[in-house]
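Continuing the batch. This is chain 6 of the set; chains 1 through 5 are on the previous pages. Same settings as before, nothing changed between runs. Recording input and output for traceability.
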Amino acid sequence: MHNSTTGTVFFELTDKKAKGLKTFYKGLTMNGKHFKIRSLLNKDVHRHYTISNTMDPKVYNPLVECLL
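Output for chain 6:
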């Protein structure tokens, strides 16, 4: 843990095959959480992710229609 709200967890692929990420999380507790995935072979290669169900087109489009 870095502090009471931030921590670091490391995962390593044992079979060296890419894995997919979940696209939908139930409830609101995961919304807004974010993480970074970094290559172990090249530490300059990394990608940031933020969990947001509302960016899924199946959720986003109906929300936009409600605003019209």
